[in-house]
Fold this protein.
Amino acid sequence: MITYEEALRLIEKHVEPLGKCEARLEDMFGAYLAEDVVATMPSPQFDNSAVDGYGVRANDLAAASSEAPKELKLVTAIAAGAPSDLQIESGQAVKIFTGARVPTSCQAVVMREYCREENGNVLIECTTQPGENIRRQGEEYRKGETVLHAGIKVTPPVVSLLASLGHVRFPIFEKPRVALVVTGDELVEPGHPLKEGQIYNSNAYGLTAALNALGIKECTSFIARDTREQTSECFKKALEQSDLVISSGGVSVGDHDYVKETLEALGAKTIFWRIAIKPGKPVYFGVLETGGKRKYIFGLPGNPVSVLVTFHQIVKPAIKKMAGGAFSASRSVRLKTGARLKKRPGRVDFVRGTLMREENGDSAAIPTRGQESHMLSGLAKADALLHFASEAEQLEPGDPVDLTLINWAD
Ligand code: AMP
Ligand code: MG
């Protein structure tokens, strides 16, 4: 059995990013950029006004105040989008709007709030400094500068930035094609009646939702009954049509657990099996080289909470690296435990918790009700996973604890 950190290290070592492709701006949200974004133009492109106001020569307002406003002749108005190479002279001003090009002869823009118009003139009640309220050409970045590096996740501001540089399409990394294999004689699809001893197949739905949250919209799901033949058949089909196979159940040491031996028989190399975590001890990770391609397989446990916790803590970082992002475990922060917790040493316990704000303003994490690995409600209500350290046996209220904020989308 390996530690959680060792499992992450092995995943990072073996998982490679997939290929690149081009995507339209409309279709790339949630992907990772496959090339650096190099500025095709400076930002801002030209000197422009940060406010609605009046463009002036700064010296003209040296003595202006609310008691003694300075009167300037209004020569024109410049709207956003209008060209403006006009010259103003001392004693003159232009009315100007946010985003409009500031003529080089204007040294500053005074906010409209300090000005009033009268008979074709403008009265200004304050002084100004050269450059005030002018957004300078290239102050954010210059033409040719690298603005974003490959590997950054495409978020709404990344899409806006690409559009602001005039891109219609941009290179991104492909997302993995994923297939699911759920194992179990007891499984019935929701919507059908249950016979005695049967349960609904919830894992396929939870995993599909988890993949959707990462922008993987389609995944095929196979149900393998607990025989060697069926398990092998399903994995074969799943591996043919995907880059990544995620299975649930059948990976422990029960008499009907065929996942590991089946994958090995199909030629997969076992990278690890069993991690010192709870829930999720039997997690399997293997790699299959076939037809010049590398495929990855995560065999997750069957219990529904174990499936989703291990997906969050183990599979999600792997998908991120396959999809071109930097490998990283889910971010953790250090907070206080809000209740007494006990366990046996030997495994990290990912305790499902909610964050509470205490009276003194500190945040503490309280375990949710229903901590067993078959109790989905405890996970459904949680917004964090407390890392109850491997060798620790007890946590008292107020003790510091590392925790991961549950985030299905990142
Ligand atoms: P296993 O590891 O196959 O022994 O499964 C462990 C537990 O998870 C058993 O109680 C199974 O009934 C349950 N389980 C396995 N697969 C699923 C599934 N797809 N949906 C819901 N529960 C499952
Ligand atoms: Mg089973």
Summary: Residues 303 and 374 are 5 Å apart (CA to CA). The chain has a mean pLDDT of 97. The chain has four domains: 4-19+175-322, 26-42+141-173, 48-135, 332-405. The radius of gyration is 30 Å.
